[in-house]
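User: Here's a protein and a ligand (pyridoxal-5'-phosphate). What would the complex look like?
Assistant: Let me lay out the input and then the predicted complex.
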Amino acid sequence: MTLYFKNGEYTEKDKLSISIDDRGYYFGDGVYEVIKVYGGKLYTAEEHFGRFLSSAQKIRMPLPYTVEEFIGIAEELVRANGISEGHVYLQATRGVAPRIHNFPGDEVLPMITAYAIDNPQPLGKLEMGVAVRTADDIRWLRCDIKSLNLLANVMAKQEAVEAGCGEAVFVRDGIVTEGSSSNIFGVKDGILYTHPATNLILNGITRRVVLKCCAAESIGVMEEPYTLEELRGMDEVFLTSTTSEITPIISIDGETVGDGTPGPVTSRLQRVFEKTIQQAMQETN
Ligand SMILES: *Cc1c(COP(=O)(O)O)cnc(C)c1O
């Protein structure tokens, strides 16, 4: 039996339904989060739900729960479904109302749904790396919002998969922004390069953990825009996300990165990242 959350209630998945008039269905009018579960415990949950509240605020959608309450919901889903290695998906739409573009009245409350699912670490990809394909970044200019509107991301990812690649890398005006659902990093002469956290990227929680790991390890970081040409010339390239962690990128549009194997800085950051997971699992809450 799989229990899902819907507006305050935990219900069996098969018994749960959503209105056809949900604004998420019509407009993608909502925001979401994905939080990883290791050893039955949520990883960086405060950061994820902090960003969730911030995404909702940016689209002017008041939410009825605090960060602590959202953590409680996620923990209950993990516990009730017996998830050890997996993730929690949580989204909020602007609720159910007849299809009119402008916001419904204040009496219409957000539709909040969530579930927890098994999803082990992608050990093969973490070790061997993935190929990526570039795509024109045709997204809107508020990529800092983790919005349900993912059509450009879906199209780019599909083209990448059809080309046998694991991720699409967006390029806007020659500048590498991010992946379709990940952040992109390059390493050149021991220095880490990644796009700054502007409106043009989603500031990943994993990205933030990696930057902290770099500070702790005295690895130099340049949060500056860099071109696709520069990315191609990097010694190492990797991507980060909640479910992909730190995944090496071994080729870009069929062109090998470095010697085509995961590089030393990437591997070192993977080890430091793994330690943060072990620490989070040991903390009592
Ligand atoms: C979620 C997401 C990321 C990665 O963020 P994490 O918090 O590390 O999972 C990066 N880019 C986009 C477009 C995303 O939606």
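Summary: DSSP finds eight helices and 15 strands in the chain.
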